[in-house]
Amino acid sequence: MPTSRTARTPGTGRSRFLAGAVAVGAVAGLTAVVLPAQSATAAPYRGANNATVQDDFNGDGYRDLAVGAPGAASGRIDAAGAVVVLYGSAGGVTASSRRTVITQATSGIPGGPEEWDRFGEAVATADLDRDGYADLLVGAPGEAIGTMGNHGSLTVVWGGSAGLKGGAAVPTPTGLDEGCQFAAGIAAGDVTGDGAPDLGVTGQCGATAYTGPFSRTGAPARRDFVNRLGTNRGVVIGDVNGDGRAERFWLPGPTTGDGSGPVHLEKQHNSYTELPLADGLSGRIGDINGDGYGDLVTGVPYDASLMSGDTPAHRGGEIHVLYGSAKGITPDQKPQVFHQGTASVPGNGENGDLFGHALGVGDVDGDGYADVLVGSRGEDIGSALDAGSATLLRGSAAGLTATGSTAYTQDTSGVPGGTETGDRFADATHLVDLNGDGRAEAVVGIPGENHDGLLWIARGSAAGPVTGGSTAVGGTAAGLGYRYADVDFGQALPGARSTI
Ligand SMILES: [Ca+2]
Ligand SMILES: [Ca+2]
Ligand SMILES: [Ca+2]
Ligand SMILES: [Ca+2]
Asked: Would you tell me which of 129, 269, 355, 489 could form a disulfide with 69, CB atoms 3.0–4.6 Å apart?
């Protein structure tokens, strides 16, 4: 049961908490929509975006975990999609933890379940209404609007002392069309520094920047839709210059001449600076070197076997790290690069491993340096194709290091199940402290496990993730419906994967 919400502050330590996330979209023909101002009598701000409230939906001081299952059936409606929320506790999250299943058939959630809505293909968290309880953001890129299939929609589900209850539709940009897949990616953070979370939302037709605060109807203070590059893959939000305002990075995805995807640092609502030495289709922000500035980690999963162009990643994929400073992250910065051919990184880079497809950033061992859990869903294990693997790289005062890095697959002792073709272990990864001991748990989605999908959670410790006695949660066991489509439980974790 919830204890006093002020009784504890999980996730404290030297690492500053920095929100980060992943998505799809673009930046041209700017359309700014200024919406009516919020009431000045909004509930007092109580620390939105700090570690205490970022994803604590029920305000008990323990962070909670949202897991997307975009293929879940709703009754007889196939692949309508669902999100399972597992509530954190002193014992962390286990198969018997308190949980809630949210679909568009859930009372108070806008819209209705339809086939292939894929509600839950993206999830993110932020205290949008500033009541001190984190709220859940759910993308349904397959949602049809009128006759426009795959238009997409974004829903907020409100946190509260009893957990998540009721929701609202966040208004989509005008002018979206069939196939835009709005809200395939979502990131949250306080870009303006007013204490109200702001959002970045991506889709196949462009990027949308939302400025908070949000009303309980889901309406933001301001909405800017930008469509410059046609599509947009990712968006990441986090403070990399320590001024208390988060930076927003847009990751438009492969473009002509840059198949690994450019990295754009937003300057204002309608302009950005390219970081010409960096690439990435997905990203996360955390303080890897413990200097108090957020650092940007991006995934560059496409190697030459998967793309043509002039900047393929190392064979199997790679990740980039750009360190923050008082000056932030500047265009002349050269990223630090890691791949499976880097000395001390386990495994070997092979065509199509997709190393870097998913990224989790958090402090697993509680040493004050954020660590990185890299997903490689395309990794073959023996004859099992696309069985998938995850690699943990450690943060240090000198930055991210391959020394002591560890790989996990379903053949690792203590990890549930066994490697099979198409499991897609680590299609999504997340590092989050669910038991409030200051060490992040390793959370790995295995959406291809049978027709169901599986979530693996290993408790953090000074020695890293503890595989013995670790937790496995299956999708249907968590209450999800299965009809014909694969449930894909574990395909989405907050800010965890590139939308490719
Ligand atoms: Ca909680
Ligand atoms: Ca809230
Ligand atoms: Ca740093
Ligand atoms: Ca660490």
From this structure: 489
Of 493, 449, 454, 457, residue with least CA distance to 477: 454
CA of 134 to the centre of ligand 2 (A): 5
The alpha carbon of 294 and the centre of ligand 1 are apart by a number of angstroms equal to 24
What DSSP string describes 336-365? EEEETTSTT-SS---TT--EEEEEEEE-SS
Tally of residues, the chain:
500
Q: What are phi and psi of 218, to 5 degrees?
A: 95, 0
> Hey, CA dihedral for 129, 130, 134, 138, is it positive or negative?
positive
pLDDT per residue as tens digits for the range 37-92 = 333 322 222 333 444 467 999 999 999 999 999 999 999 999 999 999 999 999 99
Of the ligands numbered here, which is closest to the C-alpha atom of 395? 4
CA-wise closest residue to 73 among 100, 103, 95: 103
In the predicted structure, residue 380 carries a pLDDT above the cut 60: yes
Q: CA separation (Å) from 314 to 94, 151, 272, 485?
A: 37, 35, 27, 34
Ligand nearest to the CA of 10: 1
SS3 call for 423 = coil
